[in-house]
Amino acid sequence: MGNRGGALHNGDRQIVRTYKSRRWITCVLEFRGRKRCVMSPGRYTELFFLDEAVAFAAGHRPCAECRRQRYNAFKKAWQSLRTGPINADQIDWELHCARMDAQKRKLTYDAALDQLPNGSFVKIDGHPWLVWGDALLLWTPQAYARKISRSQDVVAAVLTPQPVVECFRQGYEPEIHGSWRSL
């Protein structure tokens, strides 16, 4: 589960904005017995992802409270590419600049499939695919639906923000839904 810094919905539970702040985080579904009503008036809008790799492709990062171990590992990978101390605000700022343009459209960039690390999402023929090992896994909201070999010398649009892909290259491997094992 994740959120984008606040309420994205109105009192009628209609989505009225894409984000509230730069802090886009992913959380666990259960934490310290807290209970919530989805889309409570005036509260943050809950977003649900198939897995962590999908949340990263959408531009989110691990929550520093409920996913502290994952946040620390992600921060360590992020830090390895930069100088000086890093905090969540700095990560959020840089990530925000990498996930959308001034018109609030998703930023993508082209890269060779054989150069992308596990966890990266690409768009091929209008469909999102997860790069995993020597394969691409077709994403659907319910599960990974198909597996194909990762082609050599093919360039695709990368959906995962570039700083996150760089963290994957530094050893941070996102958690993915187990449906890929049956493909």
In short:
This protein is of the alpha+beta class and 183 residues long. The chain has helices at 52-57, 68-79, 88-99, 162-169; strands spanning 2-3, 25-26, 61-62, 109-112, 121-124, 127-132, 135-139, 144-149, 155-158.
Describe this structure in words.
It is a single chain. With about 180 residues, the protein is of the alpha+beta class. The protein has one domain. The chain is built from 4 helices and 9 strands, in the order E-E-H-E-H-H-E-E-E-E-E-E-H. The chain has a 6-stranded antiparallel beta sheet. Strands 1-2-3 form a 3-stranded mixed beta sheet. The model has no long low-confidence stretch (mean pLDDT about 95).
Task: Give the overall silhouette.
Answer: globular
Q: In the residues, how many domains can be counted?
A: 1
Order the strands across the largest sheet as they lie in space. 4-9-5-6-7-8
From the alpha carbons, calculate the radius of gyration and give it in angstroms: 17 Å
Q: What portion of the residues fall into strands of 2 or more residues?
A: 15-25%
Rounded to the nearest angstrom, the distance between the terminal CA atoms is 25 Å
How is this fold's topology laid out?
Blueprint lengths: L1 E2 L21 E2 L25 H6 L3 E2 L5 H12 L8 H12 L9 E4 L8 E4 L2 E6 L2 E5 L4 E6 L5 E4 L3 H8 L14
Parallel strand pairs: 2-3
Antiparallel strand pairs: 1-2, 4-9, 5-6, 5-9, 6-7, 7-8
Attribute tags:
183 residues; alpha+beta; six-stranded antiparallel sheet; three-stranded mixed sheet; 4 helices
